[in-house]
Amino acid sequence: MTTRRDILRGGLAATAGLAAGTAARAEGDPLITELQDWNHVLGDGVDANPYGMPSRHEAHVKRRSVEWLTADPVSSVNFTPLHELDGIITPNGLCFERHHGGVADIEPAKHRLMINGLVDTPLVFTMQDLMRFPRENRVYFLECAANSGMEWRGAQLNGCQFTHGMIHNVMYTGVPLRLILEEAGVKTNGKWIMPEGADAAAMTRSIPIEKAMDDCLVAFKMNGEALRPEQGYPLRLVVPGWEGNMWIKWLRRIEVGDQPWHHREETSKYTDLLENGTARRFTWEMDAKSVITNPSPQAPILHSKGPTVLTGVAWSGRGTIPRVDVTIDGGKNWHEARMSGPSFDKSMHRFYYDFDWDGTPLLLQSRAHDSTGYVQPTKEELRQFRGVNSIYHNNGIQTWYVNEKGIAENVEIS
């Protein structure tokens, strides 16, 4: 009869064998047998870098742009290096940027937030005034509506940083917007708000009052420190689960009205042009989406056949992600991934799939399920409904082809 002790003994023997094999390969390695500089030379003291920075060996981990994508870097975008990250929190210095008029340089002591329009008492708040309101901490993703937009007509950009990198996920600290609006007193016919940015573009969007009174924040910190200038310092709007252009940065004014304003960014932009020439408007919520970040074109498999870790992120503007399926053979067989880490509403979720790679080519895909029962569609399913004219709200399943050398590229399969 096999006992629990036999099983444990067998497992320990296998582990020891693996360790011995690794040690045999490392035998004689001068990086083990000889002292390195860092083993016997004193390093920098505690005040050498008063604001901590990543290791110089991680200098390649950075936001990147696509030069031909926009005519001018002032109204442009760069991308989060998703393939270099793990967990669910995006470091502040790696959160993608999207600007319509460049980064505003604002002195917080001179910054003001005005509430006007259909309110009982128009008000102006200083930053110190806002600090006296009750505040909350919430972890949310922020995704540009155009994320993956270049993939509508087929595989274009080779790397998940460029196909899916217009997204980040951080903890925001701020004041619930409803408290500020209640302070001014919204009139009964106040059905919409129009937040406005203090940057040169004076970015504006129309937002229904129901959303404003629900979960929106007026935020001044992200991941515990002040907003970065490129993320709206000193004040931005947080509109959980909705497209990123509504999260007005450098927030200076909120007007309350009785109907949407139909400004430029919600008419000529951020609408979805359909095949028949009509357009979907007010497509605010971001649908469930996922992407495998490793292996991927910028993160090839660097080892030979054997144990391999596949990982990625999933998110939904309508709730949480209780499940992600992955396939390594282009959809012939699907496997439920292992979810790891916290599951917050309207936040990124991290998933893993551990498998033994036999060295043959792979076709990798992930498919997210959100808490409403929605299942992430294929790109072809999206095109059958929406055509290929749009550049917004592409949440189709992404495919990476990995060859026998572990090198990955962006492909589509039918």
From TrEMBL:
<keyword id="KW-0560">Oxidoreductase</keyword>
<protein>
    <submittedName>
        <fullName>Sulfur dehydrogenase subunit SoxC</fullName>
    </submittedName>
</protein>
<dbReference type="GO" id="GO:0008482">
    <property type="term" value="F:sulfite oxidase activity"/>
</dbReference>
<dbReference type="InterPro" id="IPR000572">
    <property type="entry name" value="OxRdtase_Mopterin-bd_dom"/>
</dbReference>
<feature type="domain" description="Moybdenum cofactor oxidoreductase dimerisation">
    <location>
        <begin position="281"/>
        <end position="398"/>
    </location>
</feature>
<dbReference type="Pfam" id="PF03404">
    <property type="entry name" value="Mo-co_dimer"/>
</dbReference>
<dbReference type="GO" id="GO:0030151">
    <property type="term" value="F:molybdenum ion binding"/>
</dbReference>
<keyword id="KW-0500">Molybdenum</keyword>
<dbReference type="InterPro" id="IPR036374">
    <property type="entry name" value="OxRdtase_Mopterin-bd_sf"/>
</dbReference>
<dbReference type="Pfam" id="PF00174">
    <property type="entry name" value="Oxidored_molyb"/>
</dbReference>
<dbReference type="InterPro" id="IPR006311">
    <property type="entry name" value="TAT_signal"/>
</dbReference>
<dbReference type="GO" id="GO:0006790">
    <property type="term" value="P:sulfur compound metabolic process"/>
</dbReference>
<dbReference type="InterPro" id="IPR005066">
    <property type="entry name" value="MoCF_OxRdtse_dimer"/>
</dbReference>
<dbReference type="InterPro" id="IPR008335">
    <property type="entry name" value="Mopterin_OxRdtase_euk"/>
</dbReference>
<feature type="domain" description="Oxidoreductase molybdopterin-binding">
    <location>
        <begin position="100"/>
        <end position="261"/>
    </location>
</feature>
<dbReference type="InterPro" id="IPR030835">
    <property type="entry name" value="Sulfite_DH_SoxC"/>
</dbReference>
<dbReference type="GO" id="GO:0043546">
    <property type="term" value="F:molybdopterin cofactor binding"/>
</dbReference>
<keyword id="KW-0479">Metal-binding</keyword>
<dbReference type="InterPro" id="IPR014756">
    <property type="entry name" value="Ig_E-set"/>
</dbReference>
<dbReference type="GO" id="GO:0020037">
    <property type="term" value="F:heme binding"/>
</dbReference>
